[in-house]
Structures are given as structure tokens and as C-alpha cells.
Design goal:
Layout lengths: L9 E9 L4 E9 L4 E6 L7 E5 L2 E14 L16 E9 L5 E10 L8 H8 L6 E5 L1 H5 L9 E6 L4 E6 L3 E3 L22 E4 L6 E6 L8 E6 L3 H47 L4 H29 L3 H24 L9 H9 L1
Parallel strand pairs: 1-12, 7-10, 7-11
Antiparallel strand pairs: 1-4, 2-3, 2-8, 3-5, 4-5, 5-6, 6-7, 9-10, 9-12, 13-14
Helix pairs in contact: 3-5, 4-5
């Protein structure tokens, strides 16, 4: 059986990008008859594979997973110079026309190997007649090693009328159980003579993202295509969030022009009455002292919040904005009054006469 040759010219009319971030798996089973491990994929809101053929993009979602081995001389796709003790096979279905795409990933048992591989977790949890569930981040396993030039082998299979794409780089695992698995599946043809060598999308369409498991101190990094629906949905959500916050700020600013002067006037009126401050001259002196005390107090409070740090910085920013906005509004109200008609003392006196 001929092996795929990676030195073959790259087909620039086609490209592929992967987005196998955490996928929920259910009905995980170790099949004792076929000697493989299978699982079903939970429905995902975003695509897992974007395949481009002559500038026409197709989005695929993963529907099932199968892990096979090469025990008892059973075969998997072989790539020249790439070791393989088995394969991770992910079945993906086109979101538009039900076209099937099989993604194949060579697996090799290594010692030492990765300590927290999702593929290892899937192999360990699989048991006969006991369906289990698991969430796996295949992207972390696929791109665990730095690869100078990522390549894929792609061909069309007459068996199952499917497209087959094989990742041209071995993925290391530590589960020796793989050595006992076989490939008795008939999903697609193996080693056809006609095939293409592909690469990911052109540079500039990829971004580096971090995935941090909740219970882990390690940060795993993988490539994520900007053109994927996950990134596009995130961008749209962020834009909507920014617009919504901007509208809220405008509404808050508009309401402040009515609320802040009313509160300021009420506080001064309350203090004038309870402290027995009468006469416009005395009240103006009191108001100036009150303004100075409030500014200094708020400034000290803002400095304290910024010094504490963490979430208190947000409180400090909010108080700073409200203080600045209040100062502008109240100063504007006072500047519009005549020399002998000081706001809000004039309004307070009119209210007292009424």
C-alpha cells in the first residue's frame, strides 16, 4: 500500500482550518467486537472545520468520533515519514448540504508523553456497555507541539461519498490501550493514488488564542481562524455590547443633568434648615465650604480605591466619572446665574417663601 508523500506540490486552490475547541462527547463506548472506541458529539453552535475549495467555503460540524488502532495488521492511512499506531477519526457534516468530511489524526504512543491529553482521557474513560460522557479540547492535543509548516493530505473517497483530510503530523499520547485497538471500520477508502497536499488558510486569517481549563494552572495555546463562525459571533457580540454600553452612558449623562442638580439642591436646603444658616451671603460662604469638603472627600475616596486595586479600581473609575460629571453640571448651572442671583440659593429661598 503506497504511502502519502508530503513532498508533493501543495494544492493552493484548497485550504482548511480547524476549530476543535472543547466538544461535549456522549455515549462513549469501547466496542469489543470492532475493537475501537466511539462517541457522539453534542450539537455545537459554531463550526469545527472550514474547508475552502476555489474560494468557496464550506462549514462543517463534528457529529461523531472514533479511535482506531493497527493491531492484527489492520490498516490506517499512512504518510511517509510519519509514525502512527492508530488514528483519531472525527466525522463532520456540512451545515448546508450534508456533505461528509472525515478528519483523521495519526496517533503515536510515546513515553514520556503529554500529562493531560484529552485523547488519553477519552481512551481511559471508554468502557464496554457503559456509556459515559466527557468534554474534550482536541485543539489542545492537535496543536500541542510547535509545527513549522502544518500540512494535510486530502482526497475524495468513493466509499461513503466523503471527503477525507488527514493531519500530516503525529499526535503523541500515553495510552498503551491504543496498541490493542484495530481498524475494522469502512468509513472511507485508504491510500488512494489521487490526493492533494493542503495547508491552513493564508497567514493573517489566524490568531493566537488561549484556553485555560478551570481546574488547571497551565495555559494551552492553539490557533483559531478569524473567519470561523465562533470568532465572528464573538466579534458581533462585542460590537453589540459596546454599542449598548455607549447608549447607556448617553442615557445616564442625560438623566444626570436633571438628577444631580436636584440632589445637590436638596442636600444644601436640608443643611441650611438644620444648621440654621440664613441670608444669601452666609449661605454662599457655607455652599463654597461644602463644595470644597465634598471635592476633597471624593478625591480621597477615589485615591483609596485605586490604592486597594482589584475590583475597587472599577469603583474608583465610576466615582471619578460621576464626580467630574457632577462638577461640570453644577458649575454650568452656577455660571448661568446673575451676580446677585446665586444658584441654587435663589431657588431654595423661593421654595421657602412658597
Amino acid at each position: 500500500m503506497n504511502e502519502f508523500n508530503l513532498s508533493k506540490s501543495i494544492d493552493t486552490s484548497k485550504s482548511i482550518t480547524l476549530n476543535y475547541i472543547p466538544i461535549g462527547l456522549k455515549n462513549i463506548l469501547l466496542n469489543t467486537d470492532d475493537k475501537n472506541i466511539t462517541a457522539e458529539c453534542e450539537t455545537s453552535p459554531s463550526s469545527h472545520v472550514t474547508f475552502t475549495d476555489n474560494n468557496i467555503k464550506s462549514e462543517f460540524k463534528a457529529t461523531s468520533v472514533c479511535i482506531v488502532g493497527t493491531a492484527n495488521d489492520t490498516k490506517v492511512n499512512q504518510i511517509s515519514g510519519v509514525a502512527s499506531n492508530g488514528q483519531l477519526i472525527i466525522k463532520n457534516v456540512d451545515t448546508d448540504n450534508n456533505e461528509v468530511l472525515f478528519m483523521c489524526f495519526p496517533l503515536v504512543v510515546a513515553n514520556p508523553g503529554p500529562s493531560n491529553s484529552g485523547i488519553d482521557a477519552l481512551i481511559r474513560i471508554a468502557a464496554p456497555d457503559i456509556p459515559t460522557t466527557l468534554t474534550v479540547n482536541f485543539n489542545a492535543d492537535i496543536f500541542a507541539k510547535e509545527i513549522s509548516e502544518v500540512k494535510y493530505v486530502e482526497y475524495s473517497s468513493s466509499l461513503g461519498n466523503a471527503r477525507v483530510v488527514t493531519f500530516a503530523h503525529p499526535i503523541s499520547i500515553i495510552s498503551a490501550q491504543l496498541m490493542g485497538l484495530e481498524n475494522n471500520t469502512n468509513f472511507f477508502n485508504l491510500q488512494p493514488s489521487e490526493y492533494s497536499i493542503l495547508t491552513p488558510s493564508t497567514p493573517g486569517e489566524w490568531m493566537e488564542c488561549d484556553y485555560v481549563p478551570i481546574d488547571s494552572e497551565e495555559v494551552e495555546t492553539y490557533n483559531l481562524p478569524v473567519s470561523s463562525s465562533l470568532v465572528q459571533d464573538s466579534a458581533a457580540h462585542n460590537s453589540l455590547k459596546t454599542m449598548f454600553m455607549y447608549i447607556l452612558f448617553l442615557l445616564f449623562t442625560g438623566m444626570s443633568y436633571s438628577v444631580i442638580p436636584a440632589i445637590y439642591k436638596y442636600i444644601l436646603s436640608f443643611l441650611f434648615i438644620n444648621l440654621g444658616t440664613t441670608g444669601q451671603s452666609a449661605r454662599k460662604i457655607f455652599m463654597d465650604r461644602f463644595d470644597t469638603i465634598m471635592r476633597v472627600s471624593l478625591l480621597i475616596l477615589i485615591i483609596i480605591f485605586f490604592a486597594i486595586g482589584n475590583q475597587f479600581i472599577l469603583y474608583g473609575i465610576v466615582i471619578s466619572i460621576v464626580t467630574l460629571l457632577g462638577y461640570i453640571i453644577i458649575s454650568s448651572k452656577k455660571s448661568n446665574d446673575k451676580k446677585d442671583d446665586v444658584w441654587p440659593i435663589n431657588e431654595i429661598e423661593r421654595d421657602e417663601l412658597d
